[in-house]
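Structure tokens please, single chain.
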Amino acid sequence: MNNHFRFMKAALLVISLCLSMMMSQLSLAAELQEVDNAIVKMLDAAAVDQNPDGSFTGAIESDPSIEVLFLLVAKELGKDTPELEDEVFHRVFSWKGEDVAWSFRPGGVPSIDVTGIILHGLEKLGINPSDERVAEAWAWFESQGGDDSLNLATVLLLKPIGLSTFKLDELLSPLFFALPQDSEINIWSIGILRNLLIPLIVQQFYAENNIVLPVLDRRIESNGSHLARPKKQRFKLFPLNFWAQEGLGYMIGHQQPDGNWYAFQAAYVNILMLNTVQKRGVYDVSDEIENAWNGMLKVKKTNINNEMFISVSDSTGWDTSRMLMALQSIPESFRDSMVAIENNRKGIDWLLGKQLFNKGDWSNNAPNLRPGGWSFVPDNIWLPDTDVTAAAVEALLSYKIENPYYRPVEMDNAISRGLEWTLGMQNDDGSFPAWDTDNTTYLPLFLSLLSKNPPDIEDVGQPDVTSRIIELLHDIDKVAPEFSSQALRDSIQGACGYLLSVRTQTEPSAWRGDWAVDYLYATGLAASALMVADCWSLSDAEQSLDWIASVQNDDGGWGEDHQSFIVESYVNAPSSAMQTGFIVEGFLTYEELYMEMDNEPSAYRPVLDQAMSYLISTVGDDGRIDEKSHTGVLLKQLWYADYAAVPDIRTINALGRYYKLISE
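Here you go.
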């Protein structure tokens, strides 16, 4: 009897185990199918969205303060129309809705800077503070300190249209351009901020009835080359008018063929500067003004709510390189079912044609470095970007590994030059900036002299950029030894050392973001990079991952509010695919490395599974993700953006990596 009972018990146990295995297999099959369906839909959408030339482009939408400034430019140039005014006013007030003032995103916490730009702009456009549409907002604005509490960046943007009493010439004059390159603060040590300051200084110099001497064509034709003269030659001070003309030449030389500059902010201040120059009879820049206005019209878009908006910048360089990287992450079994082979090749051809071989602004601090980068804005040859360049090199390398006989000489040269330029841009502390190496750390002090509320726009070491570049360098060292070197390995160690030195004190083993909101985004990337590069063991990463897991939302995604930048600690927000796609990087990397060692899921698998379920839930029937999180960073505490293409790119990348994990 006992033997019979034991036999039955054993049989039931075997049956239970078999059923459990069957259910597990069925569950896995269902999960694989769900991921499979999402990938196929997104790949089909990517094939449709790819431009005929092989590139990918997504609009960048910010808050309505951009459109108000755009309308003010139109009014200044005599280009405003009743239709344009109606479009802008509709966007301004629909964004505000029933809220007391304007936020970085609809329904968010009011921003004094966004509100300040809009209110001052609307007043100049004829909507007085007593108007019922703005009266409550004006009361709120004044209760928060009004103009005295505005960020310096806001003040400077209001200055050229006469909406600020801030006296820029009391602190800055064209002589600022004459400061030698070996001084702690000079035009080449302040990063991309110079593309706002130079036109502002020039505009104010000519607007305030300074003595204007005739412009010599060679001043303009030189593209402001004296701003970049050797150190010793720059000690000699020329008249103010000389340096104003140098600044004018520099900005004209930086105007892109399409009429724009790097982003809307630069285009806005430059077109107003050119208009002042034209009005004062300094120099005939009528063609440049018309080209600039046409450039602004080219980035006038319509969103899904049928609202006009200005796309802040052309992100084709970033979108194309990152999309190609994402497509390469997809398992090979998917690639035959789409036109990915042709699409990837078209994209690779586009990248090869957009590598920059001129010495841009970066060369003033790195004169002996060979050019070879890529720009976020492909038409802007002066400002290649380390982050975009790393992505372009990664995309080319991934394609080369699978297609070694496709344009081999050109591919090798492009990868080698791009890698060399990226390594040459590394700062002494091991970090990577975006545009210029060796920028001064005195910029915050300099800005604090101008305002008690200076903007956070340093282009020094950036944890998120550094993290992405670490992963590129590690991949090269691991899979492409022909491009590796001891210098590359030393660069990885230096970059890891930088990351470990700049962890925040407010959250456990966390980092702050530069180009997206904020702690969670940067921490997921940094943890992933440190693990990949063997600068952290898996156990080292667990404190960071435990913290990220502890704030995962119930829907499986993550969100963080823009207030994190202001209060300097994590502030929760509803989940977004934009943020989740970045944050999940740390868990994907941990899981991949863990399974290599133990061949079984880690304790973080449920966190990863929930995150992937959330991302899949955001994919529409058309294969696209429709959200407006406005969590990309244009200028911290002032302008944030919805990057239309990034949620799709990050989700494709995450789905590809996840599918490989669960199908093994």
